[in-house]
Design brief:
This protein is of the alpha/beta class. About 30% of the residues lie in helices and about 15% in strands. Helix 6 links the parallel strand 6 and strand 7. Helix 4 runs parallel beside helix 8. The N terminus is likely disordered.
Length: about 325
């Protein structure tokens, strides 16, 4: 097991002053990165009349994800005077939801609460720029196991969803709607995501596909490999096409792994896929469901590469560049 880093080094890692080339940000003031920055240019071709796509590997991604994970795990205050040691108690999940709602609102989105009784999902919709009923869902669970800071499981997934929301909000000419969903009570056998999937089904939302992420912060052997969990027909091909389109060298393996939020959507016949570290292949965090699942165990460049893959995929789908 890795030992926990001292507090001064965590603060250094969270700041741009440690050599990160991202947006300058001070953990002392608690100020988040500027969400109104002009997007970086994209290596992908722009569609006529739609302008350039934002860079899927923009410099703001890592400092922003450090902020998100820092606040969700207690490395930083999530609100003045409040640090979370876990996201399993009712009180800690209320604090997490408030922060997540504020984060979505800062992007110009309208956060909504989906109270299903025992818990509350947070979600926001980014509408298509043209008339479309097609909807793509991007999600991750924000709760943690009891007594666990839950940095890898699953603040990493939350940070990827929020980064994807920020990236897609800068994409013009979107041909479909995007729902960014943060699920409660995954650790209780996907209660939150199952309730959310049921709501989509009963409201007759035209869901094209669902993409979830759980545990994306560990890459001990440094090969950058990831797993696509139980992709329904056509989805693995989309991920592979996104790799080619973005010039990415990420080894992807298809697995039959369940036990997390993507499985909930198949109960209602929605096509789904999960993205994770090498959970089935064995290169996965040793801090699973442990008090040592802390900020300092996260491989942020690895998380950024998964975020780049998602951003490439979702922006290409928005522009109709992938079929």
């Amino acid at each position: 097991m890795r030992s926990q880093l001292p507090a001064f080094l965590i603060a250094c890692l969270l700041s741009a002053g440690c050599g990160d080339d991202g947006v300058p940000w001070s953990p002392d003031t608690g100020a988040p990165p500027d969400l109104t920055l002009a997007p970086d240019s994209s290596p992908l071709a722009a569609d006529a009349g739609c302008g350039d796509l934002p860079n899927p590997a923009a410099a703001w991604i890592t400092p922003y994800q450090k902020e998100v994970i820092g606040k969700l795990t207690g490395a930083l205050e999530i609100s003045p005077g409040v640090k979370l040691s876990e996201r399993q108690t009712a009180k800690s999940r209320v604090a997490a939801r408030a922060y997540l709602s504020t984060s979505l609102a800062a992007m110009g989105l309208k956060p909504r609460s989906h109270d299903y009784g025992s818990g509350v999902n947070i979600h926001a919709t980014l509408a298509a720029s043209t008339a479309s009923q097609d909807t793509l869902v991007v999600g991750a669970h924000y709760d943690s196991a009891k007594g666990c800071p839950g940095a890898n499981d699953n603040a990493t997934g939350v940070a990827a969803v929020l980064a994807a929301a920020r990236h897609l909000s800068q994409v013009s000419c979107r041909g479909q709607n995007y729902i960014f969903a943060l699920f409660d009570e995954e650790e209780l056998k996907q209660v939150g995501s199952t309730a959310f999937a049921k709501q989509l089904y009963t409201s007759k939302t035209q869901v094209v596909s669902v993409h979830t992420m759980d545990q994306m912060g560990w890459d001990q052997d440094g090969d950058g490999a990831m797993e696509v969990e139980r992709p329904d027909p056509g989805l693995m091909s989309l991920y592979q096409k996104a790799l080619t389109l973005g010039g990415l060298k990420i080894p992807l393996t298809q697995t039959k792994t369940g036990g997390t939020d993507h499985v909930a959507f198949r109960l209602y016949n929605f096509a789904a896929a999960g993205l994770t570290e090498e959970y089935a292949s064995g290169d996965t965090t040793p801090h699973y469901h442990s008090p040592t699942d802390t900020f300092d165990t996260i491989n942020f460049p690895y998380l950024a590469s998964a975020t780049q893959l998602w951003n490439t995929l979702f922006s290409a789908l928005a522009r109709g560049a992938l079929q």
